[in-house]
Design goal:
The protein starts with 5 loop residues before the first strand and ends in a 7-residue tail after the last strand. It is of the alpha/beta class and 108 residues long. The chain is globular. The protein has a single domain, classed as Rossmann fold (3-Layer(aba) Sandwich), CATH 3.40.50. The protein has a four-stranded parallel sheet, sandwiched between helices. A two-stranded antiparallel ribbon has the order 5-6. 26% of the residues lie in helices and 22% in strands. 23% of the residues are buried.
Length: 108
Amino acid sequence: MSAPETFTPATLAAASFVGPQLGVLGDPIAHSLSPAMHGAALAALGPTHPELAGWRYHRLHVTAAELPAALRTLHAKGFVGLNLTGRIRCRPSDSSSRCRPRPGAPRR
């Protein structure tokens, strides 16, 4: 299995998706095992749960400052579920000026 592609706000804007999409957002994000784990689970469930056959889980490198715009883009692109890494400290409804890395959170 190849490593999942990592999207950025720029590559996300140009991407096309078919079916329901899921993802994990963060900065940094390369270390995240979520796309491989959730992708494997979706692939394993697909044969017995056809409604999940088109679902995909993506890795998205998004900074705290980029988060509000990225959430709007993700919604427009058909993403139906997202996880945020612990480094992004804000609520998705906050303005970008209030989203910032969590102090003391380790960078990997």
